[in-house]
# Entry
Amino acid sequence: MLTPAITAQPVLEFAADVRDGLTKPQKELLSKYLYDDVGSALFEVISVLPEYGLTRADERVLQRNGYDIVERLSLPLVVAELGSGSGKKTRWLLKALARRQHTAYCPIEISPTALAMCKRELGDMDSISIVGFEREYLDGLAEVAARRKSNQHLLVLFLGSTIGNFDRPAGMQFLRDIRGTLLPGDSLLLGTDLLKPIPQLLEAYADPLGVTAAFNKNLLARINHDLGADFELPYFEHVARFNNQARSVEMHLMSKREQTVTIPGAGFSVRFVEGETIWTESSHKYSKDEVFQMAGDSGFRCEAQWIDTEWPFAESLLVAH
Ligand SMILES: C[S@@+](CC[C@H](N)C(=O)[O-])C[C@H]1O[C@@H](n2cnc3c(N)ncnc32)[C@H](O)[C@@H]1O
# Structure
């Protein structure tokens, strides 16, 4: 079941964000716009690429420790997942929960395609009722929190290191905002990709097959499609860079020549010099101790942490106090 659709990203808002981002000195586009129909489908392919170990690591942690995680939770509870994507990994937690309760599971997604995938992926589980929210993260979470019954706790899932798409201060603010919608005793299961050798990280975001490049360039195709722009995709190149100071992998789209692009739906044209880039996404990387610090600074206590050692990745259970 889905909540009545509110168009999560009206075209006008998209146009305003594109104009705002492409008129900055370092041109940028918000990473949330990567996830249209094509982008959400391409992300699923990225998650099975040999170079992108992150999703498999997260899934291993959930598969191996699902029962341990669930044992630590106060019941009954409602599960809200921020940016669920296809929800494939979440099955392990919902399966572990099935021993203890029937669960209302609320995926919150900006992408209707991802939400539909999630419903298909988990729709065969008798132990859950799926109520999807086509919303931005915090809007959806506020709705789930408002609907829960007085005896129910809330478990928020923010898996796949999606928090890494925020820079560190914004990530901290986001954790505080989540905490602000929770009550003492509610929890947040937070996935964070851990720092690893830079060549390994760069390969994960610039795979030789070019799937991540297609995922990135699709953002320009989306602007062409939704705002009538004339980006010529062959003249842009996908680039992944490690930012040492921010401890993040950045994705950019680099202009291969001097060119001017017109974006009628946003009412402007934009000029690129050769080699200039549009910054489209950052994926920040963490140390496992940093997560304890982040929890403490945002009104949570880190109750437990599970690590995948094959591809260093941490799932941490943060409890609101
Ligand atoms: C990196 S993917 C992760 C998907 C999944 N959680 C996983 O771990 O594989 C991020 C997901 O969050 C969704 N998303 C991005 N920005 C969002 C926002 N502001 N509000 C709601 N969902 C968002 C995207 O559509 C996408 O499915």
DSSP finds ten helices and 13 strands in the chain. The CA atoms of residues 76 and 152 lie 5 Å apart. The pocket of S-adenosylmethionine is lined by residues 32, 35, 40, 43, 47, 55, 83-85, 108-111, 114, 136-137, 159-160, 162 (CB under 6 Å).
